[in-house]
């Protein structure tokens, strides 16, 4: 027996109904929420980074403060990248960091877990904090570093956020990887 189709049913098969304002919003909310969490995390990192760097500039000029064990606070100006590589290429490093931040934002849009969004937000915040130094501070593109451990290059809150965010991202990716099934022998 053949079904009779109404004109409305045939039209919906050819062209689905236009999305209602509510249905369009339902698709955008998860992306907006992910971006909101990542921006909030990045904002917290940038704020903490810039405040601590300004405190270091104001209070550590010409002196070192011993905190505990191997931890000292000492002011350094790093014109390079991580581990002081690429010294004197601040403009190129700022452009590379800006491109990486854009790629990280794209990764946030596609992120599949809240933990991954927070980790990406921490990395974005760290990269942004260091770009702010390169572009805004009058130190010829140098980044302010002040946390010294004596067994590791001097770093700052932004650097620590990037490292911790990368570790959290790696853990998230490892945990979410498909489990391989082993066949019985």
Largest sheet features: 3 strands, antiparallel
Helix content: 55-70%
- Overall structural class, as computed from helix and strand content, comes to mainly alpha
The number of helices is 5
How many domains, as an integer?
1
| SSE string | HHEEHHEH
Overall 3D form: globular
End-to-end separation in angstroms reads 52 Å
Seen as an oligomer or otherwise, the chain set is single chain
Radius of gyration: 24 Å
Which SSEs are present, and which pair or pack?
Blueprint: H1 7-14, H2 21-59, E1 64-68, E2 71-78, H3 90-110, H4 114-136, E3 143-148, H5 157-176
Antiparallel strand pairs: 1-2, 2-3
Helix pairs in contact: 2-3, 2-4, 3-4, 4-5
Any descriptors?
185 residues, 3-stranded antiparallel sheet, globular
Give a structural overview:
The chain has 185 residues and is mostly helical. It has one domain (39-176). It has helices spanning 7-14, 21-59, 90-110, 114-136, 157-176, and strands spanning 64-68, 71-78, 143-148. It has a 3-stranded antiparallel β-sheet. Helix 2 runs antiparallel to helix 3 (90-110), helix 2 packs across helix 4 and helix 3 packs antiparallel against helix 4 (114-136). The chain is globular and about 60 Å long. The mean pLDDT is 82.
